[in-house]
């Protein structure tokens, strides 16, 4: 099947948005072997992928995103057996991987010695972040490439994560060789990241997989990086470098806990109690948190693209995936240092 080139003719190096089929998969694999960057869908957000064994290719991820080199990357692999070539899995990690992979869970485990991966992926840490995505296209890519793919979310560092191929094209269209189109990501928020302090599981980033589900499998409560903190106050990744709060930020400012929009604002509403007749969008008119998560970044992109100055955001229940939604909203609303986008994570 022919590739559909939907890139604006003015783009410096035209990226290709490809429908996912055998032909485009072969092109993606070739690009990875050539050390180029490819964007692909996962069940959470789109990833910006490179061959994790290729130092230059991995370095170009950091350059393309404007990401500080001290912020490590997630390695995507096709299955647990492959993950075990790179990291050490203790009984908790094994249990979680066996239960949730493929799926939206990233495990940060001790990195094995002398593995054939670019040292850049771990940014000098003794641990490695590993994930087996459930998305069919991502799975087919990892099968076809048959090697580890380093992939952060396919956005400029600190900006909104992409949940559609067009979001990637907008932000990184001139940096990637190909964008594999899988339509909107079903989850819409990044994976949940679990690390280990000794053998105690720690929540490093709330994500689309609710903490309660993780705890039910390991039979113990996840340790919070901040003692006695409310879940919404959890720092993004406590053992990772780069802990500035501001992240996932649209250009517009967010006004949280809004009950209605002030003049000139647009509303990011939630649930059936949203005020009627207000300009804006509703993340889930029926009040479904999974639907709200799936829509979150896409709706923020949509509202931001109008050029509005302030987005008024209704409260989201702090339960289940609502914890991750609130985490992202709090970071998007956080103050940004003058003269930069203030974001050091991605
Ligand atoms: O859903 C996801 O996880 C998406 C898709 C593409 O897989 N990826 C993603 O990657 O969100 P990224 O780079 O945007 O976020 C990964 C986070 C970063 O904040 C990084 O600091 C953390 O994972 N991380 C990576 N390696 C780590 C390590 N060894 N220790 C602690 N944190 C780590
Ligand atoms: Mg990211």
Describe this structure in words.
- The structure is a single chain.
- Helix 1 packs across helix 5 (136-145).
- The chain has helices spanning 22-33, 55-65, 80-83, 91-100, 136-145, 165-172, 211-218, 289-304, 322-333, and strands spanning 16-19, 38-40, 47-51, 74-76, 105-110, 127-131, 149-150, 178-181, 192-197, 200-205, 253-255, 266-269, 280-282, 310-313.
- It has nine helices and 14 strands.
- Strand 9 (192-197) and strand 10 form a beta hairpin.
- The protein has a ten-stranded mixed β-sheet, with helices on both faces. Strands 11-14-12-13 form a four-stranded parallel β-sheet, with helices on one face.
- Mean pLDDT is 89; it is low at 1-14, 226-244 and 339-344.
- With 346 residues, the protein is of the alpha/beta class.
- It folds into two domains: 17-233, Alpha-Beta Complex (DHBP synthase); 253-333, Rossmann fold.
- Helix content is 26%, strand content 17%.
- It binds threonylcarbamoyladenylate (TXA) and magnesium ion.
- Magnesium ion binds next to loops.
- Threonylcarbamoyladenylate (TXA) binds next to strand 5, strand 6 and strand 9.
């Amino acid at each position: 099947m022919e590739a559909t080139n939907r890139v604006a003719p003015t783009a410096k190096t035209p990226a290709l948005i490809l429908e996912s089929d055998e032909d485009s998969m072969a092109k993606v694999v070739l690009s990875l072997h050539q050390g180029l960057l490819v964007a692909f869908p996962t069940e959470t957000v789109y990833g910006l992928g490179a061959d994790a064994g290729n130092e230059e290719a991995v370095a170009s991820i950091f350059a393309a995103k404007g990401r500080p080199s001290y912020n490590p990357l997630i390695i995507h692999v096709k299955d647990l057996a492959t993950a075990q070539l790179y990291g050490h899995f203790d009984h908790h990690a094994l249990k979680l991987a066996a239960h949730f992979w493929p799926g939206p869970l990233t495990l940060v485990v001790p990195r094995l010695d002398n593995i054939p991966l670019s040292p850049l992926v771990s940014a000098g840490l003794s641990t490695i972040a590993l994930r087996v995505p459930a998305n069919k296209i991502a799975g087919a890519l990892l099968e076809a490439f048959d090697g580890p793919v380093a992939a952060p979310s396919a956005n400029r560092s600190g900006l909104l994560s992409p949940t559609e191929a067009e979001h990637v094209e907008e932000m990184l269209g001139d940096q990637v060789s190909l964008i594999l189109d899988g339509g909107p990501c079903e989850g819409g928020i990044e994976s949940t990241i679990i690390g280990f302090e000794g053998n105690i599981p720690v929540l490093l980033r709330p994500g689309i997989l609710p903490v309660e589900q993780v705890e039910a499998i390991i039979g113990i409560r996840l340790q919070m990086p901040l003692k006695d903190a409310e879940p919404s106050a959890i720092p993004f990744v406590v053992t990772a470098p780069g802990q500035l709060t501001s992240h996932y930020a649209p250009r517009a400012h967010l006004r949280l806990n809004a009950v209605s929009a002030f003049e000139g604002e647009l509303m990011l509403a939630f649930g059936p109690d949203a005020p009627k007749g207000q300009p804006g969008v509703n993340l889930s008119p029926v009040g479904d948190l999974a639907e709200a998560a799936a829509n979150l970044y896409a709706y923020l992109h949509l509202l931001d693209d109008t050029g509005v100055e302030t987005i008024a955001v209704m409260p989201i229940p702090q339960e289940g995936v609502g914890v991750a939604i609130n985490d992202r909203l709090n970071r998007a609303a956080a103050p940004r240092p003058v003269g930069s986008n203030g974001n050091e994570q991605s």
